[in-house]
User: Which sequence fits this backbone?
């Protein structure tokens, strides 16, 4: 029987690469995103090519009921959920003095509450199964902080706290929870940054290249398979050595 993974924010960037990599590893998939229906097609074509069965959920993961129905329907369809990757995330950058309440709340709602929503509903299923692996996609700025990203950094630091607490609560039933903290990864999220910012970043990356979504996907692959069966509650930094 194929294992089953839920991946949020799977329509592009890192989430798309994660979904495709997990299908390559032989998992069936529930794909969440929040956009135009056609946005998920590229991911769907790729996972089909690898022989995965899939479900698609186009809805806002920051809404508690959306996560609840996605997890319920996935369990009903596949009979099990073995992997959850909380990847959906947004930025609304601004200096603290100028940051609006909406900019703060919306980022925390998607990046942190969205992960809680899925984690809460999936944990019940995984506890009963006595197995499961959860990976939360945080960020290096959740560790270091970043000027202009108080909302985003706080949401990612919160996600790291959520990861460690969940790891402690779920470990005795064989459910592992880890986080990945990516550095600078080439996606739509970082495309909008100015050349000056990008060059500044590059000069601080010892491996002298930006990360690719696949670099994160491979780390997720490691954290959800038996290869990492003795690892839980950890934050794996995948950043070319930028933060050490
Ligand atoms: P991206 O290209 O902007 O993709 C974000 C994904 O999240 C999209 O699939 C988007 O769906 C989905 N999404 C956004 N809001 C959502 C919501 N409310 N409900 C459900 N899905 C939603 O971003 P990315 O660069 O791949 O980033 C993926 C994750 O890695 C994020 O958590 C981000 O914070 C983290 N990260 C990225 C970097 C980086 O350098 N890129 C670094 C550190 C951490 P639609 O396209 O349909 O809106």
Assistant:
């Amino acid at each position: 029987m194929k294992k089953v993974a839920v991946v949020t924010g799977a329509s592009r960037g890192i989430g798309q690469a994660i979904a495709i990599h997990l299908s390559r590893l032989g998992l069936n998939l529930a794909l969440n995103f929040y956009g135009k229906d056609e946005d998920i097609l590229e991911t769907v074509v790729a996972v089909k090519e690898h022989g995965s069965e899939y479900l698609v959920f186009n809805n806002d993961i920051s809404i508690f009921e959306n996560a609840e129905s996605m997890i319920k329907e996935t369990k009903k369809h596949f009979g099990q959920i073995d992997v959850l990757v909380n990847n959906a995330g947004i930025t609304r950058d601004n200096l603290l003095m100028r940051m609006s309440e909406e900019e703060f709340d919306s980022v925390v709602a998607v990046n942190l509450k969205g992960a809680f929503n899925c984690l809460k509903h999936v944990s019940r299923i995984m506890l009963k199964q006595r197995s499961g692996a959860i990976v939360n996609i945080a960020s290096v700025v959740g560790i270091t902080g970043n000027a202009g990203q108080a909302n985003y950094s706080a949401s990612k630091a919160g996600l790291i706290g959520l990861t460690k607490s969940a790891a402690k609560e779920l470990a005795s039933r064989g459910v592992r929870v880890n986080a990945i903290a990516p550095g600078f990864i080439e996606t739509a999220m970082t495309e909008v940054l100015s050349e000056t910012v990008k060059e500044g970043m590059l000069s601080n990356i010892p491996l002298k290249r930006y990360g690719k979504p696949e670099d994160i996907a491979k780390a997720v692959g490691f954290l959800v398979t038996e290869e990492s069966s003795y690892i839980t509650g950890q934050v794996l930094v995948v950043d070319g050595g930028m933060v050490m």
Q: What stands out?
A: Residues 8-15, 32-35, 39, 60-62, 87-90, 110-111, 137, 139, 182, 184-185, 187-190 surround NAP (CB under 6 Å).
